[in-house]
Amino acid sequence: MKAFTIDRYAKKGSLRLADVPTPELRDDEVLVQVHAAGVNLLDSKIRDGEFKLILPYKLPLILGHDVAGEVVKVGRRVQQFKLGDAVYARVDDFRIGTFAEFVPVKEASLALKPQGLTMEEAASIPLVALTAWQALVEKAKLKKGQKVFIQAGSGGVGTFAIQLAKHLGATVATTTSTANVALVKSLGADVVIDYKTQDFEDVLRDYDVVLNSQDNQTLVKSLRVLKRGGKLISISGPPDPTFAKEIKAPGFVRLVVRLLSAGVRRKAKRLGVDFSFLFMKANGAQLREITRLLDAGVIRPVVDRVYPFAETNAAMVYVEAGRAKGKVVVKVK
């Protein structure tokens, strides 16, 4: 099969289009013929080697975390899916590889594709939707009447998180550029801060939850807009000791993680707020909950561009530029 691979970690390196064997299927997996694959900043970070300590992949490696496609083979223990099913997923760590014609996916990580979405729209959903769900529903336990600050509202996670937070009954503040103010308002944002002309720290006070996706300076400022007892959940780092324990990291990695997050954890403690790091996980059951919201029209996908498979490198460059409105997708079939 055709696939885009990396042979070594390299910052801003290009993926190589290669002919590789179709992956072997395990008993608890289905083989999905890839129709479309979402492109995420996580793919670039893995290519650059940023996660090699906590995700020690064997190279060469096929990148890609989001998939929408058709089931063409099932493992002998699979019960929920059959040949021909239209499905989507965020594939598991250490089984990534959706920038390819076929990818194996664990049954537990898979869901039937939302009926009203195209394959390209469906491929834009899993990673960002599960990130928003695990941050706002699972970790923050966001409730009706609470206030949440979602950074970078016009990005992939932001466009989904705003809609999910509004569905949960929260008041939503977000940051974006002047050009995207109308977009984030259309998604439900109540307070929109144009980061080119305003500083969110001058505007926001006493928030219950912050979903941080930006740099360390923004993270520290975000701690100060929370009320005492508030929660900051960061998807851009630094990783915390709880995360290192969850992934069963070796001792030296746990020490590195503890040191990386020590300053932020001290500041959070001093302010009486909670800091935690989220590295989202594949989860088919949560994806089925998300599917219900999509099928009901409660949340809509936001897709900026769809690239042909041959232009996967160009799609990654566009995502890395940080100007995409919503998600970028590669059409494989």
Short descriptors:
26% strand; 333 residues; six-stranded parallel beta sheet; seven-stranded mixed beta sheet; 11 helices; alpha/beta
Would you mind describing this structure in some detail?
The chain has helices at 41-48, 119-123, 126-139, 156-167, 181-187, 200-203, 216-223, 241-246, 251-271, 284-295, 312-320; strands spanning 2-6, 16-19, 29-39, 61-62, 66-74, 86-90, 102-106, 110-112, 147-150, 171-176, 191-194, 207-212, 226-234, 274-277, 303-308, 327-331. The mean pLDDT is 97. The protein is globular, with a radius of gyration of 19 Å. With 333 residues, the protein is α/β, with parallel strands linked by helices. β15, α11 (312-320) and β16 (327-331) form a beta-alpha-beta unit. The strands form 3 sheets. Strands 3, 5, 6, 7, 8, 15 and 16 form a 7-stranded mixed β-sheet that branches. The two termini are 12 Å apart. The chain is built from 11 helices and 16 strands.
Brief characterization of the structure:
By secondary structure, the chain is of the alpha/beta class. The chain contains eleven helices and 16 strands.
Q: What overall geometry do the principal axes of the alpha carbons give?
A: globular
**Count of DSSP strands:** 16
Largest sheet: 7 strands, mixed
Q: How are helices and strands ordered from N to C? A: EEEHEEEEEHHEHEHEHEHEHHEHEHE
- The whole-angstrom Rg is 19 Å
Low-confidence residue ranges: none
Beta-strand residue fraction = 25-35%
Structural class: alpha/beta
